[in-house]
Amino acid sequence: MSDIVHNGSSHFDSAAVPRTSASVFDIFLRFLVIGATSFGGVVPYLRGALVTKQHWLDDKEFVEMLSISQSLPGLNATNMAILAGQKLRGFAGSVAAIIGISLPGAALMYAVGVFYLRHGDHDFVTAALKGVAAAAVGLILSTVVQLSQKSLTGKFDFVFIAMTVLAVNRLHISVPRTLIAVGIIAILFHHPGRAHKGSATQ
Amino acid sequence: MNQIPALARAFAYLSLLTVGGGMAAFPEMKILTVEVHKWLTFTQLIHIYSVGQMAPGPNMMMIVIIGQWAAGPVGAIVTLAAFFGPTALLAFAVGRLWKRLEKWPWRLSIQQGLAPVSIGLLLAGCFTMAKGAITGLETGSVAVGTLLILLRYKINPAILVLGGAVVGLFSLGPR
Q1: Tell me, what's the ipTM?
Q2: What is the pTM of this model?
Q3: Chain A CB contacts of B173 below 8 Å
Q4: Residue pLDDT, tens place only, A154-191
Q5: Best interface-test mutation with B: which of A3, A126, A130 has the largest number of B CBs within 10 A?
């Protein structure tokens, strides 16, 4: 397909010339700010910075990238950084984006690691950490509920969820084996011949 | 003993298991880092994972601490590169191929099929963690309370995790 012909069906074309003049350093800086300020989940901050403020991506591109990010292994945050960086400035853009978004959190956690070794066994730290861990369990459960509401397309999907949990927690089958086995069954169940109801993207 | 190659191998492998979120890799992470390599205890793993939920940026940055404890600053950097490198390359490749993949009929099947499996892996990771983190009525109430508040109200989850710390300080300390 020629680059000159505009393809109206998709705005997401990494081969196309970027519309904006984001330099590699701009990309690094913008993602560094997201990496330093995105408390409690990166995606809304990404949308705010990339779509609303910088106009580096339009909403359709953002949603498309998010749906790719969610169906690949890897964290949404880092996959989004790779895809957005690639769209803006190719390989160098991806590298700048992922380093930028990771650096603040990584530095902070490094400091936490040092602190924990020194003070992690104090009574008050242990008590606070117990509460933090319990709240984190609640947070993961809420993610499970919200993802289920958003991305499941049929009642049968709950059977696949149950199979996965049983395989890992009860039968102690390793995660990759479970992922491949249940994954293949679930993908075949959702084969293209079956009328696709709903959409996993929104 | 030099832990660098073991760190690189373990985290590159764990990287590929993070389908649907970092928590999907948690059961396997516990086996590798706690039971096989003994880089930290299960309690420590739960602690750093949970503290990591309050940090900005991608939410699995706690892996930096495992690398640091096992092999110092170099260990931390190697762990980061191993955990984010493989999936980053994959995302980059898929980003390039996307135009062709977009019209592939099985793409939606894969997306719809992997959705319940990734939710199941997330839940399995959650149960693995809950076994260590939920030790009684108090911690159970904090978890359920957090869940209900997050489902009911639009509130920044980092604040609730911080709230968990405060509740812990006042009610879970030594008697």
Answers
A1: 0.90
A2: 0.86
A3: 123-124, 127
A4: 888 999 999 999 999 999 998 889 999 999 999 999 98
A5: A130
